[in-house]
Write a structure and sequence with these properties.
401 residues; alpha+beta; 8-stranded antiparallel β-sheet; 5-stranded mixed barrel; 7 helices; 35% helix
Length: 401
């Protein structure tokens, strides 16, 4: 079954496949549930580790940032290297500089930047699956709809894994490879950036190819990409297009605009900016776009630390919830043949999992705070009892005979 294509759109077709299997008995379902319980125990244990260590990491990072802010030395003059700042934590803002342009000889691209990325995509078949299960004549049937679209993809898709490879065959490799070139020497004023700081220059912008002409007669420029085809509007499977992106513009009088200004906090070692190790054991090696004061840089780092802390807390809670759900799923399996009871048990198990996961997560976080801020730990421990109290409050009291 196929659908019509408009000019410029990818090819699309689909087919449906139905498979059937015998409805599993209680022992088979119990066996599957047992495997889920093992996974649940693993998730449950891992959630404790993530929640507990996350609190220590967050406090350690916050302490290191406070230590760094109290020691940082702002560099107002970045024309020459000041020997008095040797080994000290410094802050500076300035434009990025590179010693030579980055060049891609295959396409004639040359640009003064910290990074130049060549992104290659190939027009390929992509398979999508959409399945649903239903019972019929005592069997469990699975209806799977396979949809095939032609799309631009940056990785090679192995069509041998398709349900229907005939008519949807992809090439096994790309004619051109993606690559990112990094400038060997990057500096701000007289100070050269470490590899770690250069890695943080990662905001890429697409390079416009309007004024460029392809070096190869078989290559066409269309919508800021090089197309290895004569008709970019109607590509065929196996055609390749190449786009270029740059990060950290560093040239003077560049038609792309002024050099990128960055703000850095790191340790000065001669004419280099290298990582600074705090007393807490953390490493400070910070780079942000734009001209920021030292106070603003550390405020952004504190915000990033808080976001990471809450993300790991949420992730730890979710892992604990899933672990408890998998461990208690056996109760759902036992009453699976009674629809009304099954639904009530399923609802009760969800409420139980939410309550226990919330309480245990708060207790674990409180344990992480116990050695640093005991008062907060006691308050969180008290808060951990709230979900269980609320759950018990909803249970109606037994009537005395």
């Amino acid at each position: 079954m196929s659908s019509a294509n408009l000019p410029g759109e990818g090819t699309r077709n689909e087919h449906v496949k139905v498979t059937s299997r015998k409805k599993p008995g209680i022992l088979e379902r119990m066996s599957e549930t047992a495997c889920g319980m093992v996974v649940g125990v693993g998730l449950f244990a891992l959630s404790f580790y993530i929640l507990f260590t996350n609190e220590g990491r967050a406090l350690k990072t916050a302490t290191s940032l406070d230590e760094g802010l109290s020691q940082v030395v702002p560099l107002h003059d970045i024309i020459t290297v000041d020997p008095e700042n040797e080994g000290r934590l410094v802050h500076l803002s300035g434009a990025l500089r590179t010693s030579q342009p980055l060049y891609d000889p295959n396409y004639g691209i040359s640009i003064h930047a910290v990074k130049l990325k060549r992104q290659v995509e190939m027009y390929q078949w992509v398979e999508y699956e959409d399945s649903r299960e239903y019972e019929e004549n005592g069997e469990v049937k699975t209806e799977t709809k396979y949809t095939y679209n032609t799309e631009w993809k940056s990785e090679v898709i192995n069509s041998r894994n398709f349900d229907k490879e005939i008519g949807h065959t992809n090439p096994s490799a790309m004619a051109v490879e993606s690559v990112t070139v990094v400038a060997p020497y990057v500096s701000v004023g007289p100070l050269y950036l470490s590899a770690g700081l250069v890695e943080k220059v990662d905001t890429f912008k697409q390079l416009s190819l309007v004024r460029l002409s392809p070096l190869d007669a078989f290559v066409t420029v269309y919508e800021d990409s090089f197309y290895h085809t004569h008709n970019p509007r109607r590509p065929e499977v196996g055609d390749v297009r190449v786009s270029f992106y740059y990060a950290g513009l560093s040239g003077e009088n560049s038609p792309l605009g002024p050099a990128q200004v960055v703000s850095i906090v790191a340790r000065q070692r001669k004419d280099q900016l290298v990582p600074f190790k705090t007393k807490s054991g953390d490493v400070l090696e910070i780079l942000y776009q734009g001209a920021l004061s030292a106070q603003e840089v550390f405020e952004k780092e504190h915000e990033s630390n808080q976001m990471k802390t809450w993300a790991l807390r949420a992730g730890g809670w979710l892992m604990m919830f899933l672990g408890i759900s998998l461990m208690t799923r056996i109760l759902h399996t036992i009453v699976d043949w009674l629809p009304i009871v099954r639904d009530l048990v399923s609802l009760g198990l969800r409420i139980f999992a939410v309550s226990v996961a919330t309480s245990l997560s708060l207790l674990t976080i409180a344990a992480g705070w116990l050695f640093y801020r005991p008062l907060w730990a006691v308050l969180l421990a008290g808060l951990a009892a709230v979900p269980i109290i609320l759950t018990r409050a909803r249970v109606p009291p037994k009537k005395h005979q």
